[in-house]
Amino acid sequence: MSNANTVSDLPAAVVLLSGGLDSATVLAMAQAQGLRCYTMSFDYGQRHRAELQAAERVARAAEVIEHKVVGMNLNGIGGSALTDDSIAVPEGPQDGIPVTYVPARNTLFLSLALGWAEVLGAREIFIGVNAVDYSGYPDCRPEFVEAFERLANLATRAGVEGDGFRIRAPLQYMSKAEIVQAGVALGVDYSQTVSCYQADADGRACGRCDSCRLRAEGFSAAGLADPTRYR
């Protein structure tokens, strides 16, 4: 009998876990709802690979049922400062969709999470996208989340048979300060997370990229000490 069937009778969920602040908060929220959580991270050729070690730490501390790392070669496609070393990570706010946007990233991530969820019998998939304090990525918008949920229930046997999926984005309308406050209340150890787009091999943040800026502003606005390790 599989581990998924013996640990508990509680419903299962797949949580996308990048190793950053938002996804760690989402995992804590899912567990607070009594869900058996399986976490999934992606080694997609990102320059900030320290986030993968951070995801492992967060998953281990949360005692998830299983943590899976899936490899894909998005740096072979390029087109983003996060996957193409010839494109510099910008330091400071940008107009429009920034060059740190990774083409089709959340679509691919959710698709693989959907496949695993169907195998596990999980019917909820959690993702830490946000439409308030975020960098302007099109695949973080509520319209995208709603559209993917419709796709998930059209494209799967479970959906067709009436036992469909929910794409959960609990941070969607929260400010970064509200996210930090919620995570602290749930016991999230943010010192274990890595958000920086160009963190070094030890996970130390640059303190200058857009992700570092949003994270620092969130702790400041929440009135909490920032546990981020800077180089």
TrEMBL record:
<dbReference type="GO" id="GO:0016879">
    <property type="term" value="F:ligase activity, forming carbon-nitrogen bonds"/>
</dbReference>
<keyword id="KW-0436">Ligase</keyword>
<feature type="binding site">
    <location>
        <position position="196"/>
    </location>
    <ligand>
        <name>Zn(2+)</name>
    </ligand>
</feature>
<comment type="function">
    <text>Catalyzes the ATP-dependent conversion of 7-carboxy-7-deazaguanine (CDG) to 7-cyano-7-deazaguanine (preQ(0)).</text>
</comment>
<dbReference type="GO" id="GO:0008616">
    <property type="term" value="P:tRNA queuosine(34) biosynthetic process"/>
</dbReference>
<dbReference type="Pfam" id="PF06508">
    <property type="entry name" value="QueC"/>
</dbReference>
<keyword id="KW-0862">Zinc</keyword>
<dbReference type="InterPro" id="IPR018317">
    <property type="entry name" value="QueC"/>
</dbReference>
<keyword id="KW-0547">Nucleotide-binding</keyword>
<feature type="binding site">
    <location>
        <position position="206"/>
    </location>
    <ligand>
        <name>Zn(2+)</name>
    </ligand>
</feature>
<keyword id="KW-0067">ATP-binding</keyword>
<keyword id="KW-0671">Queuosine biosynthesis</keyword>
<protein>
    <recommendedName>
        <fullName>7-cyano-7-deazaguanine synthase</fullName>
        <ecNumber>6.3.4.20</ecNumber>
    </recommendedName>
</protein>
<dbReference type="InterPro" id="IPR014729">
    <property type="entry name" value="Rossmann-like_a/b/a_fold"/>
</dbReference>
<comment type="pathway">
    <text>Purine metabolism; 7-cyano-7-deazaguanine biosynthesis.</text>
</comment>
<dbReference type="GO" id="GO:0005524">
    <property type="term" value="F:ATP binding"/>
</dbReference>
<comment type="similarity">
    <text>Belongs to the QueC family.</text>
</comment>
<feature type="binding site">
    <location>
        <begin position="17"/>
        <end position="27"/>
    </location>
    <ligand>
        <name>ATP</name>
    </ligand>
</feature>
<dbReference type="GO" id="GO:0008270">
    <property type="term" value="F:zinc ion binding"/>
</dbReference>
<feature type="binding site">
    <location>
        <position position="212"/>
    </location>
    <ligand>
        <name>Zn(2+)</name>
    </ligand>
</feature>
<keyword id="KW-0479">Metal-binding</keyword>
<feature type="binding site">
    <location>
        <position position="209"/>
    </location>
    <ligand>
        <name>Zn(2+)</name>
    </ligand>
</feature>
